[in-house]
Amino acid sequence: MKQTTILFDINETVLNLTVLRPKFKAIFGDEHYTDTWFSMLLHASTVSMITGVNTNFATLSKIMLETLAAKKGIQLTTDVIDDVLGGFSSLPAHDDIKTALTALRAAGFRVVAFSNSSLSLIENQINNAGLGPYFDEVISVEEAGTFKPSPTAYQFAATKLGQSKDQLRLVATHDWDIHGAMSVGLQGAYIDRSGAPYNPLYIKPDIYALTMDAIAAQIIATDQ
User: Is the pTM higher than 0.90?
Assistant: First the structure.
């Protein structure tokens, strides 16, 4: 069945986290701790999902920042924490996002923001990035009480959109997210933002590209 609705992961896929690097360099002396913090955040959300911890991405973001600082013997002030987390809610869009979303919508696709972030955070992120007019809908897994890549998260999106899972395609720069979606019947499209190899143990999507414009072109081509 053709995919008529395209789900977009938000953090890193649509929004550019690299603007946080100067903040992490100022705190930790190395901008690469941005990646460490985000990996810790994803790990904590996965553990929370599996063990039934009732939390949200914003709470975990703060806890993981404080945890990382504690491991490095750094005492964070409230202002510093607020500055980092405020930056997380004000990330710019990658340069190739608006043209890709415009092309997909012009081709008749429904485009949906789909994230582990809370609904209020996603809406703030999208509006702050100037992407409000480019998405048809915004879905947070918060309402389902889980996190991606839980099967429940993808089923929740399908139910909320009133479509079967095989009518959905997820675009993400996280191979674990693509794998999770495809494991339960969605199609995937992987955008390589980091240059890291796609995990060979995961289900591989039929669409794979280095830019979102190329992703959009391939998705449109599959509908011909």
Answer: yes
